[in-house]
Amino acid sequence: ASFLTQVIVGLNAVSISLVFLLAFVIIVGISNTMTIAVRERTKEIGTLRAIGMNRGSVLGLFLLEAGILGVVASGLGGVVGAVVAALVNNAAIRIDVDAMRMVLLSDTLHLVPRIPDVVVAVVVLTVVSAAAALFPSLRAARITPVTAMQSAE
Fold first, then answer.
1. Which of 11, 71, 92, 137 could be cross-linked to 62 through a Cys-Cys bond (beta carbons 3.0 to 4.6 Å apart)?
2. Are residues 121 and 20 in contact, defined by beta-carbon separation less than 8 angstroms?
3. What are the angstrom distances between the C-alpha of 102 and each of 4, 14, 78, 108, 127?
4. In the predicted model, is pLDDT for residue 72 greater than 90?
C-alpha cells in the first residue's frame, strides 16, 4: 500500500509540474499575441480614445477579448479531451506491461474525464488567459490619440 501511495504522490507531482508548464506556455503565447494585437491596432485604439473611450474601457475591451479566447479555446480543448478519453475507453486498449497493470490495477487503459474537473480546468485556463493579457491591455489603455495618429504615418 505504501508503494502505491508513493506512486500516486509521484504521479500527482508530475501532473502539477505539467500544469505549471502548460500555464507558462499559455502566458507567453497569449501575452505575445495580445502585444501584437495592440501594436497592430494602435490606430484603432487611438481613434476610440479620440472619440471618448476612456482608458478603463480600452483595458476592459482587451481583457474581454482574452477572456473570450480563453473560454472558447479551453472549452473546445475540454470537449475534445473528453471525446478522446471516451474513444480510448471504448477501444479497450490492453496493457501488456505487468508493472503498469499493477499500478493501474487494470488490464485495460481507462480514462475518466469528470465534468467538474473539466469545468475547473476551463475556468483556471480562462483566468490564466486573462491574466496573461493584463500587461498588453494596460499598454493599450495608455495609448493616447496623438501617439496613435503619429504612429499611423
1. 137
2. no
3. 9, 19, 29, 11, 38
4. yes
